[in-house]
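G., before I forget:
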Amino acid sequence: MKVMVTAEGGTAEALVCNRLARAPFFLIYDTQAQQWTSFQNPYQQEHGMGARIAQFASEKGVEVILGAAPGPNAKAALDTMGIRVAVSAGVTAQEALSNYLAGNV
Amino acid sequence: MYSITVLSGKGGTGKTLFSTNLAWLFHQKGTTAQLLDVDAEEPNASLFVKFIPIHAQNVEKWIPHIDENLCDRCGLCMKECQFSAITIAPKKTAVLAALCHGCGLCAKICPQKAITEVPKTIGNIRLGKTEEGFSFGEGILNIGEPSAVPVIRQLKKTASKDSEIRILDAPPGASCAVVESLAGSDFALLVTEPTPFGMHDLRAAIAVVSEMKIPFGVVLNRFDAGSTAYVEEIRHLDAEVIATLPFDRKIASAYAEGKLILKELPKYRPVFEQIIEAIGRGSA
């Protein structure tokens, strides 16, 4: 399974960003490979990034996003794509992931 | 028809005060005038003139409808939409009407011809005249709709072109709706106030009118003893202050009662005469 964290920075030590689609970095963790991959948010300045994040996550095979609560447009797009958001805040990407995998989110 | 757009950048500087009073003064002077309130998110010019609506029509935006039976989920429309208004997933499709600008690209490029465009009412326009006798129109954007541009476009297009002068009371800011208001204008009247906020947004407004190559002049509202430094600052922006209206509590109370300043406080008529004269010169 792939879990994506919307983060302030490019590493697992970065804090979870308080905005979802406008977060500077998207960090994807592959639970099989047990590996992080970091992407700079290509849509940070674009229109309708709420929908773009759904497209991005879908292309990367992401099932769950950990980050801020989505707005109405992002939510509609994420629902269409069948991607869930587990709200996470005030922790690092690694902590968010551990919490999620431990079933605490 | 000579078209004057009244804008400001910052909200609350006096756009409506100047546009309503100018329209009235033009009319008084025997020039056939038309006032269009294109601030469709919160039109308020009709509070100051007695509007008699004669004609009304809906404003529609055309949004895509995807026939799920024809759609093969190729995702081309999703990729090409500049506003991310379409999401295509293996099992579902979604159109986010709020993000759609109604450009029609998706329907044109769909290889399966699965997209048709359907109208959605986003607001309305009302046209008529004022009790004072000049032509008047206003646009109203429905609550929750994000863009007033189609309302402004339709109001400008539908309103009669028979008046000698058209005055447009523009929305605040310096974004799409203001650009749409300004399009095709012969002159822009930039209303500002002697505050750092007023100055900051005036710069944005000047950048827009300069880019659009529209001649403009600045009026400084709420002018008082501390305002001279601002006149100097505006001059440094290569702009001309064509008139100033004093900071006067009587103006504020007349305005708050929905009255025209020129009717209540005729001593300020020279300020508006000055503006008309500067517009006549094509100014700046």
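Residues 49-59 of chain A form the longest helix (11 residues). Strands of chain A lie at 2-7, 25-30, 35-40, 64-67, 84-87.

More on Monday.
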